[in-house]
Amino acid sequence: MNVVATTASVDQTRDLAEAVSSLARPGDVIVLAGDLGAGKTAFVQGFGRGLGVPDRITSPTFTLVHVYEGRLTIHHIDVYRLGTLGEAIDLGLPEMLDDGGVVLIEWGEAILPVLPHDYLEVRLTFGPGDDDRHVAIRAVGPAWAPREDAVAGVVSPWTAGG
Ligand code: ADP
Ligand code: MG
Fold first, then answer.
1. 51 C-alpha to center of ligand 2: Å?
2. Is the sign of the CA dihedral 92, 35, 11, 21 positive or negative?
3. Which residues make Cβ contacts (< 8 Å) with residue 134, sequence separation at least 6?
4. Closest Cα partner for 32 from 66, 79, 73?
5. Substitution site in 7, 13, 44, 58 for ligand 1 pocket (most atoms within 8 Å of beta carbon)
6. pLDDT 10s digits, 12-61
7. Over the stretch 61-86, which tens digit does the pLDDT of each residue have?
8. What are the pocket residues of ligand 1 if the criterion is a CB atom closer than 6 Å to any ligand atom?
């Protein structure tokens, strides 16, 4: 599967992420790929809203990890400033997942060697207009594969066929 959606505003990206959050389960990992300003943090904001997080979700660029309590505990990680894979190991991802949390990792593709090979990849790229983004979503590994059709369904308002 590689679902490609298109959004035309930051709110649409948040709404799309909220739709994806309806499929979230304890122990899920979402890897957010895309250049600076592509909308990775915006995606987490919508995802958190969907899980009932009341707090304002902000970029954890300097603090590395923010934790939010919603229907599930959200660990929002940004590894942009991580120096080494050892630091990524020190984040303690297995513990976050064992606790039934959901982990969303901005720039996650930079630490793939320390991630479980089982995640939803969300790749945001810039479209033609300033506010246009393409959101490519792909299941990697067994956790999300059975939910592929459901993912395609919930994001269909933002895909060509939807
Ligand atoms: P990242 O975390 O990938 O660096 P952010 O989510 O922090 O990106 O920022 C995205 C920026 O792009 C915000 O200023 C947002 O308002 C703007 N933007 C404009 N259009 C969109 C869109 N369609 N989706 C997401 N963000 C958008
Ligand atoms: Mg960000």
1. 19
2. negative
3. 4, 5, 6, 124, 125, 126, 127
4. 79
5. 13
6. 999 999 999 999 999 999 999 999 999 999 999 999 999 999 999 999 88
7. 878 899 999 999 999 999 998 888 89
8. 7-10, 12-13, 34, 36-42, 59, 106, 131, 133
